[in-house]
Amino acid sequence: MTDVPAFNPLLAPSPLPYGVPDYAAIEPEHYLPAFEEAFAAHRAEIEAIASQTVPPTFENTMLALERSGAQLERVVLAFYTVSSADATPAIQAIDEQLAPLMSAHTDAIQLDGRLYARIRTLHDRLDDLALDAEGRRLVERHFREMTHAGAALDDAAKVRLTELNSRLSELTTLFEKNLLADTNALAVVFDDAAELDGLTEGELSAAAEAARERGLEGRRLVTLTLFSGHPYPSQLRSRAARERIMTASRARAARGDEHDNTGVLREIVRLRAERAELLGYPSHAAYVTADQTAGTPEAVHSLLRELAAPAARNARAEKAALQRLIDETEAEPYALAAHDWAYWTEKVRATAYDIDTTALRPWFEAERVLRDGVFRAASLLYGLTFEERADIPSYHPDARTFEVFDEDGSALGLYVLDLYTRDTKRGGAWMNSIVKQSALRGTQPVVVNNLNVPKPADGAPTLLTLDQVTTLFHEFGHALHGLFATVTYPHFAATAVHRDFVEFPSQVNEMWILWPEVLAAYAVHHETGEPLPAGLVERLRATETFNQGFATSEYLAAAWLDQAWHSLSRADAEAVTDVAAFEAAALADIGLDDPALPPRYSSTYFAHVFSGGYSAGYYSYIWAEVLDADTVEWFRANGGLTRPNGDRFRERLLGVGGSKDPLEAYRDFRGRDAEITPLLKRRGLLA
């Protein structure tokens, strides 16, 4: 590493409100020296705790542990915000160097036998410590997490575990790098705007702007979304254009070139299986679910199989209806293919429900959706207000910062929205924290939402699809979770809950999209000022189960692929040589192997599980949706969008962060465990 610069803004207290990193002053060369110093400081803090000769107490061990690493956390959150949202070549190079260093540092702490012994002693004496509920849970979780990480292994096993973790960190970083590069390389270039007949003026403007940014003046560039599908084929009249986009999407990181991820993901699967075996588990899925609300992969597999059969049944009926329409209306009928499904689905929707989702976009202007939709729902439910802070610079010019205030006028934190796609941003949509709330450290939350909406030319409005509106509400649900979590200890801050619970609050927040007083405020035609017609709104509500066979099947197929890869034993993982053949067999096993309905993600671009935090955990969305659908029923039965309802949901669920067992928190809110019937009803899966 290089020497620490004379002045490194990452190592100095931020001059900005809420401790937001001073990104305007941070250069790429500041990151590695800052990490080096922060690593050293954190190691010294841990050494001071672990080397004590006095008996462990909550104060000298747990509180000291929670106070440690504050400088490192600031650097980590500052860097990884940028590495996911604006990964320039310089940032990517740092990320590659940093991955094994981060892994080694984490292992040095999680596997420290002296620290583990002190925490184990406290855990054994837990009933004698007279702790409050949050303090008690802090001891329980640190002990559970260190045990789960391998702290009880012998020294030889710890050495191998550290090697595995280091290599896995390198491989997951490489997977993400390959995917970003190939996603950019496979963006589809159209020479003639006529090939994109069916797109709106704003979408054509975005495609022209994307082409100009790459020096392709006069042409149109369609960038790829993370998932297999893409919003444009639902509108494109040219079947050839639809096929080009779908083919490019599905080819990512699987073309046998320098960006091919097949070898990378096979090694990831093998090493994860070896690590699980080392830790005493039959598979990576067993290892992961052991510390989630699901408990076991068998519980996950049972739910996925229970849903797959009716989903596939509904999808077959939907496919037959689409094929009939093709046969009846096309001069030269053809067999429905994956690139046709979205296009003909919109035709059926228009016929059956008199809804053209493309025509809805003029009512979904992004700024109005944000302020009069997303923010308004939060104001009505929780009493929040939002004030844009142009004086607080962010990591990219497109990232906008808003200060969030509670109903009494007190400042709650900051919300950052980074709406638009760019070549340096990874695909998909997500929420992350830049600063986490903690009473112990005296910090307030700063949270970020990232989306990948194509950016139109200057002066043109940003018109969202209904799916993009849903994504914005969803990600803001995560943001609310991060803003509302009010805890003492940093370990429980923001969205630090079990992975298969974390999607629950975000999915609940989607319910307000069509809520009358919210929809009426934001769904206004950006040119005429006319509200979305009432009849159209009713027809939208009537389509709740429309195309859910497809939507559920494509999701379940991806969730099953994740489970199939990560349920392999070490020996079975080593035997897999053909990624495509493995996928085909896994999809056939669960009955979701229709070529016209590919999984939402194929393995080589399944970033959630091979470079993100969802390995063996992509089931989390549907697992959490059981809670979500049950919660929506509660809101509807109790008056909906009211302040008392918002207060209850905030205080008993969002506000506790990770400081309480999530299912216990749910029972506290709901009065009972969740029931699955509302989910089956929502997705049209009841017999």
Question: What does the secondary structure layout of this molecule look like, with pairings?
Answer:
Elements lengths: L27 H23 L7 H10 L2 H16 L3 H22 L2 H12 L8 H17 L5 H31 L2 E3 L10 H13 L6 E3 L16 H13 L10 H17 L5 H6 L7 H33 L8 H16 L12 H17 L2 E4 L10 E7 L5 E10 L9 E6 L10 E8 L12 H19 L14 H11 L6 H7 L11 H9 L5 H19 L3 H6 L3 H11 L17 H4 L9 H18 L5 H10 L9 H9 L6 H6 L5
Parallel strand pairs: 5-7
Antiparallel strand pairs: 1-2, 3-4, 4-5, 6-7
Helix pairs in contact: 1-2, 1-3, 1-4, 4-7, 5-6, 7-10, 12-13, 12-19, 14-15, 14-17, 15-16, 16-23
Give keywords.
687 residues, mainly alpha, Glutathione S-transferase Yfyf (Class Pi), Chain A, domain 2, Neurolysin, domain 3, 4 domains, two-stranded antiparallel sheet
Structure characterization notes:
The protein is 55% helix and 6% strand. By secondary structure, the protein is mainly alpha-helical. It has four domains: 17-152, Glutathione S-transferase Yfyf (Class Pi), Chain A, domain 2, CATH 1.20.1050.40; 186-251, no CATH class; 265-355 and 547-618, Neurolysin, domain 3 (Orthogonal Bundle), CATH 1.10.1370; 362-542 and 622-682, Orthogonal Bundle (Neurolysin, domain 3), CATH 1.10.1370. A hairpin with a 5-residue loop joins strand 4 (399-405) and strand 5 (411-420). The mean pLDDT is 97.
